[in-house]
Amino acid sequence: MKILFLLFPLILLLVQGAAGERGRGACRRRGGFCTFGSCRYPTTPVGRCSTFKVCCKSVWG
Length: 61
Hints:
InterPro entries: Defensin_beta-like
Structural class: alpha+beta
Number of domains: 1
Pfam families: Defensin_beta
Distance between the termini: 54 Å
Shape: elongated
Number of helices: 1
Protein name: Beta-defensin-like domain-containing protein
Keywords: Signal
Radius of gyration: 16 Å
GO cellular component, one term: extracellular region
Strand content: 25-35%
């Protein structure tokens, strides 16, 4: 029974990680990459990967 208390947080982390895959995949299809916070020069934001991550794409290509 004690093992369930150890496995529950692990299962929650796996489910949370799988939910974030959708945003990263859409960002990569746009030719961008996910970054924490904001985009730095010479990139521009083109979407969101998750709550705190922004999808950035290079201005030159």
